[in-house]
Write a structure and sequence with these properties.
The structure is a single chain. The chain is mainly beta. It has one domain: Thiol Ester Dehydrase, Chain A, CATH 3.10.129.10. The chain has 1 helix and 5 strands. The protein has a 5-stranded antiparallel beta sheet with strand order 1-3-4-5-2, with helices on one face. It is elongated, with a radius of gyration of 15 Å. The protein starts with 7 loop residues before the first strand and ends with a strand.
Length: 107
C-alpha cells in the first residue's frame, strides 16, 4: 500500500517558469500541474494515460505549497467491467482544492 508521501509534491520558487508566470506573483502554470498528475499516475498505475476528459482549476497554486494528488478509478461500461477512467484531485496541506478532473487510461 502506498503512503501519502508517494503522491506528495511541491513546486520550488526557483523553478524557471515563475519568471514569466507571473512576475512578483508566482503562480504554477496549469500545464505543470497536469504534468504532476501524470507523474503521480505513473506511481499509482502501470496503465498509460490516453487523455483527460476534463480538468478544472479551482484555486491558484503558488510556489512552495505542499500538495497531494489522489486518484479514484471508475468502472467502465464494458462487459469486462474494467476501469478505464479515474477521477483525480489535487489538494494543498490545508485541504484547499487546487484542481480536479478525470483522466482516461488504458493498456
Amino acid at each position: 500500500m502506498m503512503q501519502d508521501s508517494d503522491y506528495h509534491f511541491i513546486i520550488k520558487a526557483s523553478a524557471p517558469y515563475f519568471a514569466g508566470h507571473f512576475p512578483n506573483n508566482p503562480v504554477v502554470p496549469g500545464a505543470v500541474i497536469l504534468e504532476k498528475v501524470l507523474l503521480k499516475w505513473s506511481v499509482f498505475s502501470a496503465c498509460k494515460v490516453l487523455g483527460f476528459d476534463y480538468c478544472k482549476f479551482t484555486h491558484p497554486l503558488l510556489a512552495e505549497v505542499h500538495c497531494w494528488v489522489s486518484f479514484t478509478p471508475l468502472k467502465a461500461g464494458n462487459s469486462n467491467n474494467q476501469p478505464t477512467k479515474a477521477d483525480f484531485k489535487i489538494t494543498s496541506k490545508d485541504n484547499t482544492l487546487i484542481c480536479k478532473g478525470r483522466l482516461v487510461y488504458g493498456g
